[in-house]
Amino acid sequence: MTTLGYAILGLLARESLSGYDLTQRMKGRVGFFWSARHSQIYPELARLEGDGFVTHSVVEQRDRPDKKVYEITASGLQALKGWITQPPPEKPTRDELTLKAYSVWLADGGEAARVFREEGLKHEEQLARYEEIRARMEDEWREGISDPGSPQFASYATLRRGIIHERGYAEWCRWLAEAVGGEVPISGRGGA
Amino acid sequence: MTTLGYAILGLLARESLSGYDLTQRMKGRVGFFWSARHSQIYPELARLEGDGFVTHSVVEQRDRPDKKVYEITASGLQALKGWITQPPPEKPTRDELTLKAYSVWLADGGEAARVFREEGLKHEEQLARYEEIRARMEDEWREGISDPGSPQFASYATLRRGIIHERGYAEWCRWLAEAVGGEVPISGRGGA
DNA sequence: ACCCGCATGTAAGTCGTTACATGATTCT
DNA sequence: AGAATCATGTAACGACTTACATGCGGGT
Fold this sequence. Notes:
The structure is a homodimer. In chain A, 60% of the residues lie in helices and 7% in strands. By secondary structure, chain A is mainly alpha-helical. In chain A, strands 1-3-2 form a three-stranded antiparallel sheet. In chain A, strand 2 and strand 3 form a beta hairpin. The structure holds a DNA duplex.
């Protein structure tokens, strides 16, 4: 069983979805630390069905093309449950920006500062988006969030991971940009 | 040019190394956010040499097998410099533990708490190792660290990234373990 | 007529891991 | 004699990306 398989089961455990719906949720989506394209999802769904972890039923639609809606089976739910509490295999971290930092001593200070400042901004923006979602969650799901047995709690947990990640990354970028370049441009030349 | 190619050039810009030496430095090593096995490194070195980014010379050794020592060329250094200040393509984050958290609402609270507590410990241990290295760096490289034009500074920068990463990850694991399980076992049953 | 969103697939290629393969030298 | 480290490669496989391919229905 692949990790992608469990990612799909994790979504189907919450609600039945078509391959297309799954693809939408896997598009680098908020709070969900995995991603996949439709070209990977459709074959994986076939494999999951072959293993008896999901079943599908065709839903006919008038105004749109028909779709196959996938549902998790008891066997699939069992497999998913078993996977959750198994310690994950540790995979080496690969981060291209940090790799660039490893060679930053060779670069022009100003240019390097610009890159790390820009990347820092991206993470700050993502952080802001996450904080907004968090505010909405804490507002709308007051009970769910405090109940570890609810999917809302789990969503909140992954979101928290995202917030901590972005906060730390942004902090590091800002520090490094400052250290290599120093001077922040007084007013931009109009570019991004 | 692949990212691995730049990772190798980044190491060779600091010192000339053999494929074997490169492999040692790529074994999930401290402060260096990339990794590769020898089976990937040797072919990549051949490719880099074909592109004129590195050259090698055979060094004969009496007490050990001979080795090919690779050196970065002017062209290789130029390519590396150009790469550093290019914004990296954003790649989707894939984190299996966070994915597990997304389905944690289905799991037994105690078992889940154990997993996240254990993972948290691993990150705390890695953090401790990083902090130790940092202390030594700050002690031994006092000048290098404050000079953005020195490789020591760059090493320190990647190490800082590692520290922030581990700190954030450990914090999240502790929070989640607490939230799902609560009670910490008074005394272990002897296991890890 | 053309583009966009919905909907589902296959094929080719890249990157990385695991396994296969060989050989020298040193230590026990 | 056998294990461990140094040293360099190739082959098979799996995961993921990009591109190819098709078709319906609605809006401009």
